[in-house]
Each structure stands twice: as C-alpha cells, then as structure tokens.
Amino acid sequence: MYLVCEPPGEPYYLGRIMEFLHAGNDTSRPVDAVRINWFYRPKDIGRKAVDTRQVFATMHSDISPLTALRGKCRIMHRGEID
User: What CA–CA distance (Å, rounded) separates 2 from 76?
Assistant: First the structure.
C-alpha cells in the first residue's frame, strides 16, 4: 500500500498500486505514473467509526503521477488485528 500526498494538515490518501504506466504508453520509456485503487476513510463516505484507523476498500481507481507517491504502508483486514 502506498501513501499519496494530500493538502497540508490533512491525512494522506491511501491506495494500492494496481499498475505501473510508462511515459507515452511506450515500454521502452521510464515509468511516470501509476494506477491506484483507493481506500476511503469513514468521513469520506459519510460514515462514523469508533476506530480512526479504519478504512474501506473501494473499486475506484485513478491514474496518478509517480511523483505523488510519498511512502509505503500496510493495511490489514480487521480480522487480522489482535
């Protein structure tokens, strides 16, 4: 899972990289973008949650520039957390 930058003071967007995209769709050129499948926080979808770490997987994806990536994180299913 990767973090994508957000406006100052706001938490990062969370997403899963689905595909690496080459410049001009030419595999001989470097990767310059990624297709990201997004996770949403409860406030993003109008839900309340007791655990502020909770996120929801979605089918929504976008293409983002490679430079928007900020780091790597791990998202676990609720059943995997003690």
Answer: 13
Angle at 52 between CA 57 and CA 74, to 5 degrees: 50
Cβ 40 vs Cβ 55: under 8 Å: yes
- Give the span between the Cα atoms of 37 and 62, in whole angstroms: 7
pLDDT per position as a tens digit, 7-60: 788 888 999 999 999 998 888 899 999 999 999 999 888 988 888 889 999 999
Distance between CA 57 and CA 63 in Å, rounded? 17
How many whole angstroms separate alpha carbon 36 and alpha carbon 1? 9
**Which tokens is 66 given?**
């490679």
